């Protein structure tokens, strides 16, 4: 599939009048086509079924480079698959996108794809940790969003517990960060963790909760 064919498929799903609304909501200066997310899901599923893994990675790269809002989301959705072999090129591509994150919608879709690659090879957590020291706020946030699978395990193994504690250490280092999106990400991680590991969530809040913004502290403890 060529880039032109993929873009034609995207443009066929444009809903008149939707682009301006989406651009305002997502605070986008890049081109926004105005395509509903369910259609993006359907397109990405069709493309995944039709393309080999190397071709998916290549198309995702080309879609991302257009800098069109929905094309970047579609690029991420192309790689959002638990079983993807080989997956090193997909991981490398997703990681290369992180410095370009500039909003939650594209970043979250890319992190969803990246999380699957991280679960497939947890050793990649070392690379993710470097993002926590980035000057780029969206990269720091991505370190928490991409590790969300470790908040959801009911019966984590020793390696999973180690990663869970490691990420909680990152969250602790973020507690004094006044960026709203960082505080929100910390709260998101803790809120999801509290459903499966309430003791760790409570311990974190007891130690670091006073350093969080009030809204983040409240959100983090929503289910405790």
UniProtKB/TrEMBL annotation:
Chain segments annotated as coiled-coil in the UniProt record: none
Domain of life: Bacteria
Pfam families referenced in this protein's UniProt entry, alphabetically: DNA_alkylation
Record Gene3D superfamilies: 1.25.10.90
Protein's name in the database: DNA alkylation repair protein
Protein species of origin: Albidovulum salinarum
Lineage, opening ranks: Bacteria, Pseudomonadati, Pseudomonadota, Alphaproteobacteria, Rhodobacterales
